[in-house]
Amino acid sequence: MAVAGTETREGHGGPLAGVRVVELAGIGPGPFAAMLLADLGADVVRVDRPGGSGLAIDPAYDITNRNKRSVLVDLKAEGGAERVLQLVERADVLIEGYRPGVAERLGVGPGDCRARNPKLVYGRMTGWGQEGPLAQRAGHDIAYIALTGTLGMIGKPDEPPTVPANLVGDYAGGSMYLVVGILAALHHARETGTGQVVDAAIVDGASHLSAMIHGMLAAGGWQDRRGANLLDGGCPFYGTYETADGRYMAVGALEQQFYDEFIELMGLAGSAPARKDLARWGELRDAVAARFKDRTRDEWTAVFEGSDACVAPVLSLREAPAHPHLAARGTFVDHGGITQPAPAPRFSSTPAGVRSGPALPGADTADVARDWGVPDLNEPTDPSTKGS
Q: Is the pTM of this model over 0.85?
């Protein structure tokens, strides 16, 4: 396992070195998007509010706050918004994840911020988007992907849909699209001198992720139900199978040459039903399942080692970092005693890295006040005096 470097936050590299980002503290996809930018070298200052974000995790273990710095500002106190706007004047990007209208009421909405900095890229991260009938409704990942049809296509046909943690909605449909939007808008701002607002809605991103599936659906190559298609577990040579020790193997032998090798190594070359006979897919699945139950996961892993059968063991979160391939690539790093995914993707000239652990709320106020030239950050706000 690779060990991350110990370089400081200042003077580091990365393709986004020199880019300044203000992140208004929240939970879920906003912090993850800001982490991606920080991993790539941006100077991300997280504006934490007194009392915390509400996420039930010790801030020292919140990896989504790595490579960032934190200041404490009470946006509801007199002068709070002004301090954020002073940061905005010196920033390239701002990220917020409030419900529509909240940032405006706090005095840090797009109009307020871009009046102080016309080049600012203002990134808005929500589930439902800035407009539409549900825009003001509360929600979480599971509700967003439910409405997009994404959740309904995951799982077995005779069981409830399988919840894919919060990876498909919050992070794939949310954070990744926010980052793409921010980088595109940042490029535009540098070309034209004019920033803009990026409206990243999880319902939009999660729907966009299913573009290929919608094309297959329109062409008649995808059935609008779970467990009946090539890529949703309906295909006997694209799915998971239990082994003798109660663990699992993942099979993805879609192409004919890979399937042939898979069946050969399974010892089913002379008995398996033809793969193109959809009427016998159930029979083929039963044969493969029975065969996998004959050996343990590690024994099957050894059988398929070095082959092109497209078969892999299903590892747990704790097992994954030790896999020889991931260890060789340094896909996971150990920083501050926490094993965590390394920054991705990789760059040949401006490598990214884990430079610092999770930023603790308010711990970097003095440094940010100095580096960004905002001395007012060092002055405490009076929470008893609320702004307008």
A: yes
